[in-house]
Amino acid sequence: MTSEKLTVPAVALGTWAWGDSGEAGEGYFGSRLTEYGLREVVDKAQSNGFTLWDTAAVYGMGRSETVLARALKSYDRGEYQLSTKFTPQIAGDGDDPVADMLEQSLDRLGTDYVDLYWIHNPADVARWTPLLIPLLESGRIRHVGVSNHNLAEIALADRILGEAGFRVEAVQNHYSLLYRGSERAGILDHCREHDVRFFSYMVLEQGALTGRYSPANPLPAGSSRAAVYNRILPQLQALTDRMTAIGADRGASAADVATAWALAKGTTPIIGVTKAAHLDGLVRAHGIELAGEEIAELEALADAAGVDTRGSWEHAM
User: Fold this and answer.
1) For residue 94, how many other CB atoms are within 10 A of its CB?
2) What is the rounded distance in angstroms from the CA atom of residue 55 to the CA atom of residue 85?
3) In this protein, which residues make up the domain named NADP-dependent oxidoreductase (predicted)?
4) Average of pLDDT values for 86-93?
5) Which pTM does this prediction carry?
6) CATH code for 12-304?
7) Which residue ranges make up each domain of the chain?
8) Which residue among 20, 48, 143, 210 is the one 20 to 30 A from 235 at the CA level?
């Protein structure tokens, strides 16, 4: 049977950008990060109770996991939780590709277990899910989640694990003011009804919902996210202006409001952090209670923007 129930902080910390090397064209975000700077991020996060770190083998093809392990090395393993992922699209052709990818992740992370292990994309639920069972039984992974899965795929994965006395305890999908596919497909309701934690990623749409960027001040040229978002910034202006105004009333930023919205919807946002100052925003967001009419207004403005920010790796929910 499963170990104790999955318990996590209100906000998880994303390290997708930690896989960037900082060289132009080498990474999704074009981030220039230093070991010292990331250690500062970790220290501030840990002292504020943000102790769940989300990474993946595919982020920088292992670089994110390696960098994260170095940044956490002064902490005892029991002081933080690690969340990483098996990505079917890069699976090897050995006898047990899931165990192989996990071992490589454990090696890079410098640990002998992962608190939360995800099937990253639903390439073949019936094929990959059973391979998690021996890893749960051995304690190499403590809890299982599925990412980018639709309702039928979540139910199938849960049924397969259930036959061995385990269950899908978490779902991680792209979910933001601009992209509410999981809500419309009934996945949020399913998670509430079955006591499954829903993790929302891309809550800030890679910076497009932080209020920092506008047609006059676009995202950094040459980054993959600039290619996706810069052309839609004009359509987002009314929404980000309103988020900025709502934040200003509370001494907070538009980004804090986006995170507070995801919290108000009952989700656990995964927020990418690359600077210690980002943690101040998470503390503020955690303290913001949005009124029902504010949530409705933001969602109406987001719908009116008429954009589709579904990632190239996602299928429709």
Assistant:
1) 10
2) 7
3) 11-302
4) 91
5) 0.94
6) 3.20.20.100
7) 12-304
8) 20
Compute the distance between CA of residue 38 and CA of residue 279 in angstroms, rounded to an integer.
12
Place of tokens 């809890």: 143
Distance in angstroms (rounded) separating the CA atoms of residues 230 and 213: 9
Amino acid at 236: L
Q: What is the pLDDT of residues 22-72, one digit of tens each?
A: 554 455 556 678 889 999 999 999 999 999 999 999 999 999 999 999 999
